[in-house]
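To illustrate the input format used throughout this study, we show a single complete record. The first block contains the structure-token representation of the backbone; no residue identities are included at this stage. The design step must infer an amino acid for every position from geometry alone.
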């Protein structure tokens, strides 16, 4: 059995077909000085042709999947037409008399290296888009075919195995023939994954060495929920998979039924379930899956990977648009959480020995008014007619809140003086993601309108365990007693000050941890959009009074394993734990996606 990440649910059994493609080797070709202008013309011709091809794919995607998915190709068109990138290629052609393909390849490599070293998931995932346009551009410039893949004349159903799946290929797949996808690269939010999900093709990505481990033609069974791939499954394995698939189908139906129901416990305690939104394309999913607002709107995508900072107008428009999608429900916008590894290209980022203990988040914003002020102005403007709330990341002192309040007041006055429509003030909250903020939670709670625990960073900074280090994954535990007790302290501080408290780290989408958070009395949980129905389902099934008892026991316990076991036992009294996915992937509700008929 091979393991990866289940990105599109469903069970598929078929023979494996390997898809091989790679970026062409581009020679270092130079041209005569009088041919330079011709190369630049060729470059621009290629851009027009590729933009047209992508336009066709966009149309096809619109028909097959929907507008949200079609937007993937808008992003690729923007990338291929990016003026600053093309100016860089042109400069290289002129300066070194390079052939267009040589210069293009060089610039793409430069960008790829810059992005690949970033730990920002958004950027790494956009690498697949870069590869896709690079393939097309080079194919045109080198006079080759633009076909990314040749599937042969196989009539039978197949499961494709590839090193990397590109969105352009994925959207062209015939669902009747290609019943499953496996790739070595890719994550849940990569574009090929989003498309596979929309097209209803079960897919597992991030399967290391899949190309080597799966012989072409072998029978494979994939579980796009659990993220597993079994080569040559036994009849017993096939049977187990069928039973699990039936259980999951049942759960999906139950989740579908409660999508638009409130998250109220059987004993009448109401918890709001909101969404964490990283990218604009997630907004629609969050609304569709019943999120009651946005508890964490990450804004880094507005600046990362771009050569210029977004304008105030552009930001205002984005915040307004998200606000509108949720009607009058709150949208909590987190101010730029830059730094560590997330810096805009245009920014003069320092090299630091310990970036995660370095110049990041609110520290960068307060030191860089040229970045922070336009964001605050945009937030005030959007808040004029939308329920926009503002949240500050990585706060460690009350002073950071006070200084932000001063900036907000100054910008509100300046907008009013200029006659620009804007709110005079916005609800302001802080993320509690450092032990310092927990210890000062009572004081911070007096200065702000809400507290929201960023349990990812709080766990990392409490346990001194890097959240991104796979080797330490076993130690990264938000149910460690040191974190659990801090959670209790934050919720008590908020309740004492009469303000709302929420949790917006990943733990809020783990059903076992939800039992704890419910019992501790958090008012809101904010989770990735696909997890919204599952979290609601837990809240609707576990009585608050019982969760409360379990939480009291968890706060008193010293052993992480005992905390987990205690909470799990309580959850198991109300829900079939076999339905909680063993791989940690949560069931998703998706219109149009269903299990194969046989199950
Ligand atoms: C967190 O730290 O828990 C959090 C929600 O913020 P991010 O994951 O963006 O750091
Ligand atoms: Mg954080």
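Output of the design step:
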């Amino acid at each position: 059995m091979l393991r990866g990440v289940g990105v599109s649910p469903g069970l598929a059994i078929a023979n494996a077909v390997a898809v091989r493609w790679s970026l062409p080797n581009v020679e270092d070709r130079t041209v005569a000085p009088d041919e330079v202008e011709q190369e630049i013309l060729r470059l621009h011709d290629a851009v027009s042709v590729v933009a047209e091809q992508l336009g066709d794919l966009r149309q096809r995607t619109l028909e097959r999947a929907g507008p949200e998915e079609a937007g993937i190709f808008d992003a690729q068109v923007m990338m291929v037409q990016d003026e600053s990138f093309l100016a860089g290629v042109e400069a290289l052609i002129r300066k070194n008399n390079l052939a267009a393909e040589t210069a293009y390849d060089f610039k793409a490599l430069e960008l790829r290296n810059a992005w690949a070293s970033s730990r920002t998931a958004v950027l790494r995932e956009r690498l697949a888009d870069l590869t896709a346009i690079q393939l097309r551009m080079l194919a045109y410039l080198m006079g080759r075919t633009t076909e990314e893949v040749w599937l042969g004349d196989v009539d039978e159903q197949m499961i494709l195995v590839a090193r990397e799946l590109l969105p352009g290929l994925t959207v062209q797949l015939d669902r009747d023939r290609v019943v499953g996808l496996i790739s070595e690269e890719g994550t849940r939010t990569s574009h090929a994954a989003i498309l596979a999900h929309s097209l209803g093709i079960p897919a597992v990505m991030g399967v290391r060495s899949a190309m080597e481990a799966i012989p072409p033609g072998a029978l494979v069974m994939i579980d796009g929920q659990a993220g597993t791939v079994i080569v040559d499954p036994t009849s017993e394995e096939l049977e187990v998979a069928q039973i699990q698939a039936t259980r999951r189908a049942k759960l999906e139906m139950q989740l579908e039924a409660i999508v638009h129901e409130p998250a109220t416990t059987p004993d009448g305690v109401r918890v709001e379930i909101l969404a964490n939104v990283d990218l604009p394309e997630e907004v629609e999913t969050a609304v569709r899956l019943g999120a009651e607002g946005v508890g964490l709107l990450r804004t880094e995508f507005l600046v990362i990977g771009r050569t210029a900072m977004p304008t105030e107008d552009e930001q205002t428009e984005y915040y307004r648009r998200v606000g509108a999608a949720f009607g009058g429900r709150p949208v909590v916008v987190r101010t730029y959480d830059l730094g560590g590894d997330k810096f805009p290209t245009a920014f003069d980022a320092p090299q630091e020995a310990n970036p995660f203990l370095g110049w990041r988040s609110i520290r960068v914003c307060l030191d860089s008014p040229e970045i922070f002020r336009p964001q605050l102005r945009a937030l005030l403007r959007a808040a004029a007619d939308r329920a926009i709330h503002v949240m500050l990341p990585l706060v460690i002192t009350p002073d950071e809140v006070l200084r932000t309040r001063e900036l907000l007041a100054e910008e509100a006055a300046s907008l009013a003086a200029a006659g620009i429509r804007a709110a005079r003030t916005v609800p302001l909250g802080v993320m509690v993601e450092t032990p310092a903020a927990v210890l000062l939670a009572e004081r911070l709670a007096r200065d702000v309108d809400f507290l929201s625990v960023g349990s990812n960073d709080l766990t990392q900074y409490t346990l001194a365990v890097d959240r991104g280090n796979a080797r330490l994954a076993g130690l990264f535990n938000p149910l460690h007693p040191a974190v659990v007790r801090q959670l209790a302290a934050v919720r008590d501080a908020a309740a004492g000050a009469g303000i709302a408290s929420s949790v917006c780290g990943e733990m809020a989408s783990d059903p076992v941890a939800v039992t704890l958070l419910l019992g501790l009395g958090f008012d809101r949980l904010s989770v990735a959009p696909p997890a919204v129905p599952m979290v609601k389902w837990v809240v609707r099934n576990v009585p608050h009074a019982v969760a409360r008892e379990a939480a009291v026991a968890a706060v008193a316990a010293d052993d992480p394993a005992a905390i987990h076991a205690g909470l799990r036992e309580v959850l198991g009294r109300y829900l079939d734990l076999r339905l909680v996915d063993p791989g940690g992937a949560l069931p998703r509700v998706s219109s149009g996606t269903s299990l194969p008929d046989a199950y």
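Structural context for interpreting the output: The first strand starts at residue 2 and ends at 3. The CA atoms of residues 157 and 420 lie 60 Å apart.
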